[in-house]
Amino acid sequence: MTVYETIKADPVSGAIPDDKAMLRAAVELTRDIATARPGIYWPDMLVSAAVGYGALAGAILLDNPWAALACAAVAVLALYRALLFIHELTHIHRDALPGFRFAWNLLVGIPMLIPSFMYEGVHTLHHARTRYGTVEDPEYLPLALMKPWSLPMFLLVAVLLPIGLLIRSAVLVPLGAIIPPLRRLVWGRASALSINPAFERRAPEDDFARMVFWQELGCSAWAIALLASTQWLGWRPLLIAIAVVSVTAVFNQLRTLVAHLWQNEGEAMTVTAQYLDSVNVPPPGLWAELWAPVGLRYHATHHLLPSMPYHALPEAHRRLAAHCGAGSTYDRASYPGMAMLIGRIARSTMRRR
């Protein structure tokens, strides 16, 4: 076993004391880069969405199967990047990027049937100091400590996601408008991008409730229109779109699978323990920029600095890595790539047969 593997082999304990020097450095070294820059957010999101929809059109319209397949691959990557701006929407200040939330929902969230309310008010619970890794965390399961069949099931859920989203918006939400118990069930159990099956969402209130109403209305109208379009366009366009979204969801589920080590058994964790249970995949590897775009290759650093805009995370990582040095607590959250991390979790589950 190499030194690298030895460092990574020990399970993360919630009792790990906070590395106060690292936490202080994270704040002090990054103050000057903590402002979201509209000149980066807007072009990145708009170009990603435009390329994604253009490539999706090519996948649907082209007769050459290889050309259509190439377009589908581009659509997956571009729409995946566009969708992941939902993560930024949960962290940036409401007044930081005027109009960005509305534009993203109009161009990406509603057409993909994943409006921002599915993450807003949910993801922040994952970052709550006393909730991370506990049963109250909607985005945590001790996957590394579960049975081997849990990983295939984890990915199967993603494969079926677009079908579930269609049923939710086209059928369940409209029915819920006239059947209150169904409405409460759909909201509580099927309105959040969560992986914890025990999580039940609270009813929305005030301004957030109004935002949810309009986003739900948009999604339902669009989902019904998509299903109705099959009457004159046939099923081929919709099935291709479903396939593209399904692969996109699998990409995101794989990214989620390696975003943490998933070793906590439910106890509250210190900030440093949360950091060490999270994952950075820094350069020189290039592939991580495709499967963990919009700053998510620096997921551990993000847990130290949740409000840091995605475009500043590479520089934040460089500063902290240089300041803390090799072998430091900060360095211990860096890994070489997805394959190694999936293998690590898979081996852990195999020991629990």
TrEMBL record:
<feature type="transmembrane region" description="Helical">
    <location>
        <begin position="66"/>
        <end position="86"/>
    </location>
</feature>
<dbReference type="Pfam" id="PF00487">
    <property type="entry name" value="FA_desaturase"/>
</dbReference>
<keyword id="KW-0472">Membrane</keyword>
<dbReference type="InterPro" id="IPR005804">
    <property type="entry name" value="FA_desaturase_dom"/>
</dbReference>
<dbReference type="InterPro" id="IPR012171">
    <property type="entry name" value="Fatty_acid_desaturase"/>
</dbReference>
<keyword id="KW-0812">Transmembrane</keyword>
<dbReference type="GO" id="GO:0008610">
    <property type="term" value="P:lipid biosynthetic process"/>
</dbReference>
<dbReference type="GO" id="GO:0016020">
    <property type="term" value="C:membrane"/>
</dbReference>
<feature type="domain" description="Fatty acid desaturase">
    <location>
        <begin position="66"/>
        <end position="328"/>
    </location>
</feature>
<dbReference type="GO" id="GO:0016717">
    <property type="term" value="F:oxidoreductase activity, acting on paired donors, with oxidation of a pair of donors resulting in the reduction of molecular oxygen to two molecules of water"/>
</dbReference>
<feature type="transmembrane region" description="Helical">
    <location>
        <begin position="40"/>
        <end position="60"/>
    </location>
</feature>
<keyword id="KW-1133">Transmembrane helix</keyword>
<protein>
    <submittedName>
        <fullName>Fatty acid desaturase</fullName>
    </submittedName>
</protein>
<feature type="transmembrane region" description="Helical">
    <location>
        <begin position="98"/>
        <end position="119"/>
    </location>
</feature>
<feature type="transmembrane region" description="Helical">
    <location>
        <begin position="153"/>
        <end position="179"/>
    </location>
</feature>
